[in-house]
Amino acid sequence: MTRDDYAVFIVDDDERIREALIELLESHGMRAMAFGSAGDYVCASKPDVAACLVLDIELPDINGLDLQRQIAQGGHPPIVFITGHGDIPSSVRAIKSGAVDFLTKPFSDADLLAAIQAAIAEDRKQRADSSDLGALRQRYFNLTPRERDVLPLVVSGLLNKQAAAKLGISEVTLQVHRRNVMLKMAAASLADLVRIAEKLDVPITHSRRVEGNEHE
User: For 130-154, how does the pLDDT look when each residue is reduced to its tens digit (9 = 90+)?
Assistant: First the structure.
């Protein structure tokens, strides 16, 4: 990875710590931005790249753990906590809330760098997954209303004749819609389409077994 496709954000009220961390990260070719408070970090314009947030627990305006909770739904980067006053309850709370690591000062350069690299890798994966999901949602949006009716029936495992009967259409028409769904959703197989439907939270409200029993 190159210096410009990721960033490390540092939030610590100790200027000496901020300077030392920036020097360390830049010596390893990492781009870093430092802030003296949570408010400065939240309000700052930040590059939209894979990132890691190195966050102190004790800040002048808010506790780092409280900041973690507040920004949890905002798409923030993975957090590596650093603190000079670590305790087990705080570390447990941080990790349970998704922090990559919880380091107590003084920590080794190697431990910090490893945690930061793990956080950036995690953020890259989350971004890739989010991008893939966005593409799937766009494909789903491009389906016609009838094709959206067909999709949950197909992934439920209904036979073509069962799905057609459910929608009040002919089996041939159902097959046309099914083929279009497969093509538009870029599904290579039924199993692939099922996985796509799961990612999109398409409701599965029918089962082949139950539908079959209706005709027994």
Answer: 888 989 999 999 999 999 999 999 9
